[in-house]
Every structure is written in structure tokens, then in C-alpha cells.
Design brief:
The protein is mostly helical. It is built from eight helices and no strands. The chain is flat.
Length: 329
């Protein structure tokens, strides 16, 4: 029991570190502190503890330190869960994804120091953000899975089996959202956040500017993000109308719609008020949590190509032997 409690605590701490790492990464981007430590990595100006640090150096180096702590926590959590739940393939998959993408994220972070001021840097930064989303979502799902496996209860219900259309809907929505996240990262790293000035919902006199311009990049992201909002609304309505017995899917879809709506509002505020640090941090938080929620819905509905319909989320229960049962002699 004590080991289970420690594992839960470690999972929560790791999730918190993953979230803080994402926020610090956004802080580095918005404040332009990516070169705060010069061209050296992982040290700062070639030193473990620099003699003097500017604000940009402090922001960049603190991000590197917290990222390292996050990677260490993920490594320990992954190894621990692999040994504790050897028979659970989902645990192994989520642990691998968490560890793999946090390492890949660190490698890309190092490469961005080298490709200063080039298009390659913008592309690397976009991939860096995308991989950080997968790492964050994997850690959150790993934590949820640990709590599910350690639970001593199952919810028995007469819920109808989940239809294939709902399974495909959840996965398509998650995959499409992940792709659109890259357009948002490109808007940020290309400096296109105010590509349309402070106009909402229009962008000058054109509905689709040249995609090679900052306005075109910005408008493309707007259209793609609006489609995410629309698809999330459709998914929530589908769950409410046909699968409300599944409480996890019902609440998950409602939370997903609320998060994507708040995310859209934070994007509008960015256009109206300009790119400000607090709004950017809120927007990044909403993006990360929204994507993690979509991944949770995917985990709950299961693989659409598995040929298996899910009625409820099952967790193992240790059978309890009783004495003096009826009919025993």
C-alpha cells in the first residue's frame, strides 16, 4: 500500500513538472530568451553556474534545469511502472511515449541553439512544441492509468457499447488537433500573432491572404482552429445524444468543448491586445490541457481498429475469498 501511494505521488509530481516545463518553454519563446545562454548547451555560457546572468539567461537556464528534472522524473516513473505493471501494455506504451518524446524534445531544444535566425530554427521550434504536447499528454495519461489500475472499484452500468463512429471521431479529432497545433506554433515562432493587425474576425479586405505572408499564416491557423471548435462541438453533441451513460466520455467531451472555447477566446485576446506574456501562458495551458483531454477520450473509447466494443473501463480487482458462503460444506 505504501509503494502504491509513493507511485501516485511520483506520478502527480511528474505531471506537475511536465506542465511547468511547457510553461517555461512558452516563456522562453515569448520573451525571446532562446539565446540567453549563448551557443552552449546544456551549460550556460560554458559554465555550470555562470558568474553573471541576464534576465534572458535566467529564463533560458531555468527552463533547461526544470526540463532536466522533468526528464529524470519521467525516467523513474517509467521504469517503476514497467516493473510494477508488467502485464499492462498500455502502461508500457504511455511510459515509452513519455520518455521518448521528452528526450526528443531536449534534442530539438539543443538544435535550436545551433540554427539561430533561420527557417530551420522556426521549424525545429514548432516540432519542439508539438513533441512537448505528446510528452505532456503521455505523462497525464500515464498518471490516470496508474490511478485506474490501483482503484478497487469498477462502475457497473448498462451503458450501450461504444460505436465505431465515436471511436473514429475521437481519434480523428485528436490527430487533426495535433496537426493544427503546428500551425499555431508556426504563428508564434514566425511572429505572425498580429499578422492581421488587431482585426477579428476579418483580416483586412481579403478572406485568404497569401500564405507566404504573415497574414496568410495567421488566417490559415484561424480557419483550422475554428474547425477544431466545430468538430469538438459535434463530438460533444454526439456523446450527449447517444452515449451519456458513459460518464467519463460525457464529462470529458464537455470539458474538451469548454477548453477549446476558452482557447479560442485567449487567441482573440492575443489579437486584440497584442502578444502579452500572461495571455500566451494561458493560451499554452489551455492548448496543453485540451490536447491531453482529447487523448484521454481516445484512451477511453479504445482503438477503433481493434474490432472490440467497450462498455466500461475495466480495472483489475483482486478476488477476495470468503468463508462460510452459501452452499459450501
Amino acid at each position: 500500500m505504501f509503494k502504491r501511494l509513493l507511485l501516485r505521488i511520483l506520478a502527480i509530481i511528474t505531471s506537475f513538472f511536465a506542465y511547468i516545463t511547457s510553461l517555461l518553454g512558452v516563456n522562453v519563446t515569448v520573451t525571446g530568451s532562446g539565446r540567453g545562454c549563448g551557443g552552449s548547451w546544456p551549460l550556460c555560457h560554458g559554465q555550470l553556474l555562470p558568474d553573471s546572468m541576464s534576465v534572458a539567461s535566467f529564463i533560458e537556464y531555468s527552463h533547461r534545469i526544470v526540463s532536466g528534472g522533468d526528464g529524470l522524473c519521467i525516467l523513474i516513473l517509467t521504469v517503476w511502472t514497467w516493473f510494477a505493471y508488467k502485464q499492462d501494455r498500455l502502461i508500457k506504451l504511455l511510459g515509452f511515449l513519455s520518455l521518448f518524446f521528452v528526450v526528443l524534445q531536449g534534442v530539438l531544444g539543443a538544435l535550436t541553439v545551433v540554427f539561430e535566425g533561420t527557417f530551420a530554427k522556426n521549424a525545429l521550434l514548432s516540432f519542439h512544441f508539438g513533441f512537448s504536447l505528446i510528452s505532456f499528454a503521455s505523462v497525464i495519461l500515464l498518471t490516470i492509468r496508474i490511478f485506474q489500475l490501483q482503484s478497487t472499484k469498477t462502475e457497473k452500468s448498462a451503458a450501450r457499447p461504444i460505436a465505431k463512429v465515436l471511436q473514429y471521431g475521437a481519434w480523428v479529432l485528436a490527430i487533426y488537433t495535433y496537426i493544427v497545433m503546428y500551425t499555431g506554433a508556426l504563428v508564434e515562432h514566425a511572429g505572425a500573432a498580429t499578422g492581421c493587425g488587431h482585426e477579428v474576425p476579418g483580416c483586412g479586405t481579403r478572406y485568404l491572404p497569401d500564405l507566404s505572408s504573415l497574414a496568410g499564416i495567421h488566417v490559415l491557423h484561424r480557419y483550422a482552429a475554428f474547425l477544431i471548435w466545430l468538430l469538438t462541438l459535434c463530438f460533444m453533441v454526439m456523446v450527449i445524444r447517444g452515449f451519456r451513460e458513459h460518464r467519463d466520455l460525457l464529462w470529458g467531451s464537455c470539458w474538451a468543448f469548454l477548453l477549446v472555447t476558452l482557447q479560442a477566446l485567449s487567441g482573440i485576446l492575443t489579437v486584440l491586445l497584442g502578444e502579452q506574456l500572461m495571455i500566451s501562458l494561458v493560451h499554452a495551458t489551455l492548448v496543453s490541457v485540451f490536447f491531453a483531454m482529447l487523448c484521454y477520450l481516445c484512451m477511453q473509447v479504445g482503438w477503433p481498429w481493434s474490432g472490440r466494443q467497450i462498455v466500461e473501463q475495466q480495472v483489475p480487482i483482486v478476488p477476495v475469498k470468503t468463508q462460510g458462503s452459501v452452499g459450501s460444506r
